Amino acid sequence: MSTVHAIRFHQTGGPEVLSWDSVEVGDPGPGEVRVRHTAVGLNYIDTYHRSGLYPVTLPSGLGLEAAGVIEAVGEGVGGLAPGDRVAYGTGPLGAYAEARVMTPETLLRLPDAIDDRTAAAMMLQGLTVQYLIRRLFRVEPGMTVLFHAAAGGVGLIACQWLKHLGATVIGTVGSPEKAELARAHGCDHTILYREEDFVARVKEITDGKGVPVVYDGVGKDVFDGSLDCLQRLGMMATYGNASGPVPDISPLILNTKGSLFLTRPKLMDYAATRAELVAMADDVFGVVASGAVRIAVNQTYALKDAAQAHRDLEGRKTTGSTVLLP
């Protein structure tokens, strides 16, 4: 048994509820491994768990994504050995820790071409982009798509990957600096959604046709307008709510706006089986290792300073991906 530190929260609320606690980590039991984390990913879903928007049992750890090294392997675990580099992006909750014992179902062995910080920054976000653009709605060459929050961690990966697929990318951003960043990562058209009528701009860019798919991780502030950006039979994928939950909607609205499709997906359902997860991760590793997608780790914080990282994330002060260092 050894003592390590981990970020925990004993009540829901703002970043101030996060505490740097001492926790005991034992040897792995049958079917378990012990992982020493070298880098931990920061994601917007972490703020939903912390705030109580997505309920968890308290007290709780935090974080779904990390990279590290296998320290010990329990009885009955095959395919992994001490010293192996691994990463995960689909939990379980508790990645904000120096080390942990976990089952290996969500662990993926890292290719040599991908370093630990890159891995910690790309797993959850990269897997999210993979299911959004390759499975939920399979984007084909020549398509024009609308991606909200194009300068965020998911957005920068998506812009590059969509460009690699031969799509035209329209991205919304919150500032001129973020617009420049999105364009540098493959976004063809940027819209300052707080200052411009993004529906009018999308219609202008598409000669009035609209787009076949909208990917929305912003939520409340852009939801209604996003439906108006869609072509007949278009798909609205609202996968996050950085600006707050979307309003209730009558299914009849989808009918009147062109027999639209609306989905509220989550990564864990698309990566529910080991086979699905491995296939998705192989796709992500492939585009990153090839250089088609570059992971922008634009901020790093000490893991013990996770509260400040949350303040900056929610204050729209971050771009690209953020990594917490144990």
From TrEMBL:
<dbReference type="GO" id="GO:0003960">
    <property type="term" value="F:quinone reductase (NADPH) activity"/>
</dbReference>
<dbReference type="InterPro" id="IPR002364">
    <property type="entry name" value="Quin_OxRdtase/zeta-crystal_CS"/>
</dbReference>
<dbReference type="InterPro" id="IPR011032">
    <property type="entry name" value="GroES-like_sf"/>
</dbReference>
<keyword id="KW-0560">Oxidoreductase</keyword>
<protein>
    <submittedName>
        <fullName>NADPH2:quinone reductase</fullName>
    </submittedName>
</protein>
<dbReference type="GO" id="GO:0005829">
    <property type="term" value="C:cytosol"/>
</dbReference>
<dbReference type="InterPro" id="IPR013154">
    <property type="entry name" value="ADH-like_N"/>
</dbReference>
<dbReference type="Pfam" id="PF08240">
    <property type="entry name" value="ADH_N"/>
</dbReference>
<dbReference type="GO" id="GO:0035925">
    <property type="term" value="F:mRNA 3'-UTR AU-rich region binding"/>
</dbReference>
<keyword id="KW-0521">NADP</keyword>
<dbReference type="InterPro" id="IPR036291">
    <property type="entry name" value="NAD(P)-bd_dom_sf"/>
</dbReference>
<dbReference type="GO" id="GO:0070402">
    <property type="term" value="F:NADPH binding"/>
</dbReference>
<dbReference type="InterPro" id="IPR013149">
    <property type="entry name" value="ADH-like_C"/>
</dbReference>
<feature type="domain" description="Enoyl reductase (ER)">
    <location>
        <begin position="13"/>
        <end position="324"/>
    </location>
</feature>
<dbReference type="Pfam" id="PF00107">
    <property type="entry name" value="ADH_zinc_N"/>
</dbReference>
<dbReference type="GO" id="GO:0008270">
    <property type="term" value="F:zinc ion binding"/>
</dbReference>
<dbReference type="InterPro" id="IPR047618">
    <property type="entry name" value="QOR-like"/>
</dbReference>
<dbReference type="InterPro" id="IPR020843">
    <property type="entry name" value="ER"/>
</dbReference>
